[in-house]
Amino acid sequence: MKTLRTQVAIIGAGTAGMTGYRAAKAGGKQTLLIESNVYGTTCARVGCMPSKLLIAAADAAHMLHAASGFGVHAGEVRIDGKAVMARVRSERDRFVGFVVESVAAYPAEDKLHGHARFLGPTRLQVDDHTLVEAERFVIATGSTPIVPDEWRAAGPRVITSDAVFDWDDLPASVAVVGTGVIGLELGQALARLGVRVTIFARGGSVAQLSDPEVLEVARRAMSDELDVRFKTKVIKVEQHGDGLAVTSEDAGGQQRTEQFAYLLSAIGRRPNVHQLGLENTGLQRDHHGIPLYDQQTMQCGDSAIFIAGDANDERPQLPEAADHGRIAGDNAARYPEVKPGLRRTPLAISFTEPQIATMGASYAELCVSHPGRFAVGKVSFHNQGRSRVMLQNKGMLRVYAEYQSGRFLGAEMIGPRAENIGHLLAWAVQAGLPVDAMLDMPFYHPVVEEGVRTALRDLAHHLKHEPAHDCPCVDCTPAP
Ligand SMILES: Cc1cc2nc3c(=O)[nH]c(=O)nc-3n(C[C@H](O)[C@H](O)[C@H](O)COP(=O)(O)OP(=O)(O)OC[C@H]3O[C@@H](n4cnc5c(N)ncnc54)[C@H](O)[C@@H]3O)c2cc1C
Ligand SMILES: NC(=O)c1ccc[n+]([C@@H]2O[C@H](COP(=O)([O-])OP(=O)(O)OC[C@H]3O[C@@H](n4cnc5c(N)ncnc54)[C@H](O)[C@@H]3O)[C@@H](O)[C@H]2O)c1
Asked: Per the database record, which ranges form the FAD/NAD(P)-binding domain (predicted)?
């Protein structure tokens, strides 16, 4: 086995690892980037980009159906599954190609291929070929989709989102388990592309929402279009001919067995921290096995080990992976003189239709941090002018602000243009704007943002009428 010595070792060449590598190099340190799989990142290869490509095809199909609502009739709609998947894969490969080119430009001596595992706090073993001795480390190992063993036992038709982007045709049917972001984005896209889709939710959650009123509207919006079975557990998955027999049980104990070509497990992703030898580092870890770390510096305890991206499970999204990686790489180079990096206001967008966006503090978080001390304003998009014009008048926005200071704290929404409204409101939170100042901003006509103004006016009204109670929070019904 050969031994390599370096100042900084980065484990994982995804988004977090690549930004970490560049930051550590910019800090003047000799840096080694270790990757066990192919280059290209989860985001480009099997994440953000191919999923949005599939959704774009689904939107095109949906527009043809929706057009009849305007009196415009498209004739018979034909979906060519092979052509849909060919475009998804070829455009995806283009995005992956750009990432692979970036990595190819890194000096050969900065890259090592193989699975890294800590043997001690300053030592890694990579496969069975190399020992790496380093002064500082960045763990940027990403996450893996969860598939329960009892489902996996039913064979290769039980899949995760990774497999969807390798299809060369659309299947006849898919059972999707999970109403998180992945289950809803992919489930809706496949349904719009003519696949028979049933989405099973063991509870009542919808993507990242926590506000009970928005959740209720979201459940209705999803159920209006899709076969979503809330409060229905998948209790058995068995091989059946070429496909699967899926048995589910609803809240009333009613069982049902149905056949599907595939079962897509979308029940969450687990951070890749379990085959890393972390027990040999002396780091303190939480009950999920993730090292305790500082969210401003990404430093694990006071060690020379930093953790970034999906691996720390804080906000498993692409922009966060990039920010974490930059902070971790920069601080690995500076160690022991670490400094807080730029953390931004939380913003999460689900590319369902209607889109779902949450920004700033969530309703559930405010019930803990501001019990009885925050006001809520809202707007339904049902009668919102521009939304009705576009036939996209479904959804609700709820906005939150602090009594006394009037500071805008956050919002949750499902509705039209949520990806844009999400940015607008996240910027307002990060700028620390009070609601009055937001209402002084320009609003054009007729725009969906006028709905935001209605919600803010409602919020401003409630801010003036703080209830005369000290606690507990009267508006804090727990999210289901
Ligand atoms: C279907 C899907 C859709 C998504 N859509 C969006 C979206 O629209 N917007 C958004 O913001 N986010 C989205 N995400 C989330 C986003 O893709 C991830 O948050 C982000 O890619 C995580 O980056 P990362 O660098 O932490 O991990 P990764 O890119 O997964 O990189 C981790 C790397 O570490 C390597 N590795 C692991 N263990 C080891 C080891 N021991 N030794 C060496 N190498 C190792 C892995 O092979 C991998 O290459 C989506 C995710 C999925 C799955
Ligand atoms: N647009 C985006 O930004 C985007 C898109 C896709 C993924 N992502 C990221 O990927 C992460 C993972 O997505 P995800 O959808 O897999 O996870 P998730 O955590 O968002 O949702 C998992 C869902 O599965 C349910 N669930 C958990 N265990 C279950 C079980 N045993 N049986 C049935 N249901 C179960 C949960 O209640 C939840 O509804 C997200 O947190 C997100 O950050 C982001």
From this structure: 7-322
247 token code pair: 């048995």
For 210-240, write each residue's pLDDT tens digit.
Answer: 999 999 999 999 999 999 999 999 999 999 9
Cα 51 to Cα 11, 64, 260, 322: the distances in Å are 26, 20, 21, 19
Report DSSP letters for 291-321, one per residue: BPB-TTT-BBTTSSEEE-GGGG-SS-SHHHH
CATH code at position 235: 3.50.50.60
- DSSP, collapsed to helix, strand or coil, labels residue 399 as strand
Q: What is the pTM of this model?
A: 0.96
Distance of CA 33 to the CA centre of its chain: 25
Rounded distance between C-alpha atoms, residue 209 and residue 301, angstroms: 32
Question: Ligand 2: which of 54, 143, 182, 288 to mutate, most ligand atoms within 8 Å of CB?
Answer: 182
Q: Answer yes or no: are the C-beta atoms of 228 and 201 closer than 8 Å.
A: yes
- Report pLDDT for 477: 54
Tokens matching residue 117: 């595992």
Q: Atom 38 of ligand 1 has which residue's CA nearest to it?
A: 141
Alpha helices in 27-137 (DSSP H): 42-46, 48-66, 81-104
Q: What is the DSSP string of 154-186?
A: T-TTEE-HHHHTT-SS--SEEEEE--SHHHHHH
Of 73, 287, 445, 465, which one is the catalytic site residue? 445
Catalytic: 287? no
**Number of structural domains the chain divides into:** 3
Encode pLDDT of 236-259 as tens digits. Answer: 999 999 999 999 999 999 999 999
Residue whose structure tokens are 């910019």: 26
Evaluate if residue 337 carries a pLDDT over 80: yes
Q: Which of 217, 237, 267 is the last residue of a domain?
A: 267
274 shares a domain with 140:
yes
Ligand 1 in reach of 159 Cβ (< 6 A)? no
Write out the two tokens for 373: 């001390």
Q: What range defines the domain where residue 455 resides?
A: 347-464
pLDDT of 476 above 80: no
Note whether 291 and 284 are within 8 A (CB).
Answer: yes
56/84 Cα distance (integer angstroms)? 10
Asked if 258 and 288 sit in the same domain, the reply is no
**Bridge partners of residue 33, in order along the sequence:** 10, 111
Q: Which atom of ligand 2 is nearest to the CA of 146?
A: 16
Nearest to 70 by CA among 343, 389, 387, 296: 389
Is residue 419 domain-resident?
yes
